[in-house]
């Protein structure tokens, strides 16, 4: 994807996200009819703040600080531990190895069988 | 059991509803269409052995094997709950507004500027934040929209957005946002219409009809070289020392 920047007067240059795309995402919410300009710009700016907030929190909170790299796992960890980011839980699942998952499954099945007895 | 979503990494994911797990497929093809990203996010972290495709080993029947990646979730409360309803809700959720994303380059740049200068960002982290962003926007919007409807209004305004932020735990953004909006409005006012300057001091005298009665002579040289005097009627700009600026309305 190419980077998009708004060709707008100076006031809007302080945003580094495409406002039109933000509007598109907002409109895709159910029951949204119209959005006034203030709301649109506030949301766009808030999104910028959100990215900074999430990135920095995750970086400081996770292994990123040691390895100097922000990893997916840092994001997942922050989401779980920080209440503000709880709404992201469903789209930021923690990854586990297949081997561990299968082991867990087996355990669960054993427990079920025992319970049935 | 605590609600802990897990992403299972394996080449072929099992989709058997025999045990009480709910399943959601990630419908990565949808995402790929919009974002141009390859569905590789779920395919990392393979353990040393290749994932088994032997159905009997996994304890599931062959018909459930599929080659897409799945997100598996443990159920919300006790283990005996029937999760059929939950499963439907889960699948519907994936068709939501998350399919539209902001350009990854923009998102990545903001991230990069936020972390310490020498810090790096993994590719899947960037993609992930890209999705989180869409989720965030939808989250705020639906809350604001709800408030709007409650107050019988049709247009979401700035106040709705700020209120939503506050309600949803982002009240730390509210003050910086208010400041930003203020600056933005001032800048916009300045740019609207004629290079407009507001009146610093009031006009000493209003323009009256008298101002129009003093024609200014202007010399014009016509094509045939003869000079003509043409009277140009114009408003006489009287020197009014008290006026600093004039607002053109």
Q: What's the pLDDT, averaged over the residues of chain B?
A: 63
Query: Per DSSP, what share of the residues of chain B sits in E-state strands of 2 or more residues?
Result: 5-15%
- Per DSSP, the total helix count of chain A is 6
> What's the story with the biggest beta sheet of chain B?
3 strands, antiparallel
Strand order of the largest sheet of chain B: 1-5-3
Low-confidence stretches of chain A: none
C-alpha geometry of chain B: globular
CA distance, first residue to last residue of chain B: 68 Å
Helix and strand pattern of chain B: EEEHHEEHHEHEHHEE
How confident overall, as mean pLDDT of chain A?
84
What does the oligomeric state look like here?
heterodimer
Order of helices and strands of chain A: HHEHHEHEH
Main sheet of chain A, how many strands, which sense, barrel? Answer: none
Radius of gyration of chain A from CA coordinates: 21 Å
Which structural category do the helix and sheet elements of chain A fall into? mainly alpha
Radius of gyration of chain B: 34 Å
Which percent band covers the strand fraction of chain A?
A: 5-15%
């Amino acid at each position: 994807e190419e980077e998009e920047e708004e060709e707008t007067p100076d006031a809007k240059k302080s945003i580094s996200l495409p406002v039109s795309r933000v509007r598109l995402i907002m409109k895709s919410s159910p029951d949204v009819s119209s959005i006034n300009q203030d709301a649109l710009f506030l949301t766009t700016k808030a999104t910028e703040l959100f990215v900074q907030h999430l990135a920095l929190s995750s970086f400081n909170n996770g292994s990123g600080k040691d390895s100097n790299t922000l990893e997916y796992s840092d994001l997942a960890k922050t989401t779980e531990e920080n209440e503000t980011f709880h709404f992201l839980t469903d789209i930021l699942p923690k990854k586990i190895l297949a081997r561990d998952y299968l082991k867990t499954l087996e355990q669960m099945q054993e427990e079920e069988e025992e319970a049935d007895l | 059991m605590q609600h802990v979503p897990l992403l299972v990494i394996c080449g072929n994911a099992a989709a058997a509803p025999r045990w009480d797990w709910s399943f959601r497929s990630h419908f990565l093809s949808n995402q790929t269409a919009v974002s141009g990203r390859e569905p590789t996010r779920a395919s990392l972290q393979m353990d040393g052995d290749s994932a088994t495709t032997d159905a009997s080993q996994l304890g599931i029947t062959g018909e459930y094997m599929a080659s897409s990646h799945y997100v598996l979730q443990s159920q919300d409360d006790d283990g005996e709950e029937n999760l059929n309803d939950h499963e439907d809700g889960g699948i519907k959720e994936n068709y939501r507004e998350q399919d539209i994303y902001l350009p990854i380059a923009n998102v990545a740049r903001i991230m990069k500027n936020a972390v310490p200068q020498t810090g790096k960002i993994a590719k899947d982290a960037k993609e992930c934040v890209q999705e989180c962003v869409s989720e965030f926007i939808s989250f705020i919007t639906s809350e604001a929209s709800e408030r709007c409807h409650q107050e019988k209004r049709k247009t979401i305004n700035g106040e709705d957005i700020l209120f939503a932020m506050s309600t949803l735990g982002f009240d730390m953004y509210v003050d910086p946002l208010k400041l930003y909006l203020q600056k933005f409005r001032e800048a916009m006012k300045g740019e609207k219409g004629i290079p407009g300057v507001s009146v610093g001091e009031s006009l000493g005298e209003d323009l009256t009809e008298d101002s129009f009665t003093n024609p200014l002579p202007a010399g014009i040289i016509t094509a045939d070289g003869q000079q003509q005097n043409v009277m140009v009627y114009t408003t006489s700009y009287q020197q009014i020392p008290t006026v600093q600026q004039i607002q053109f309305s």
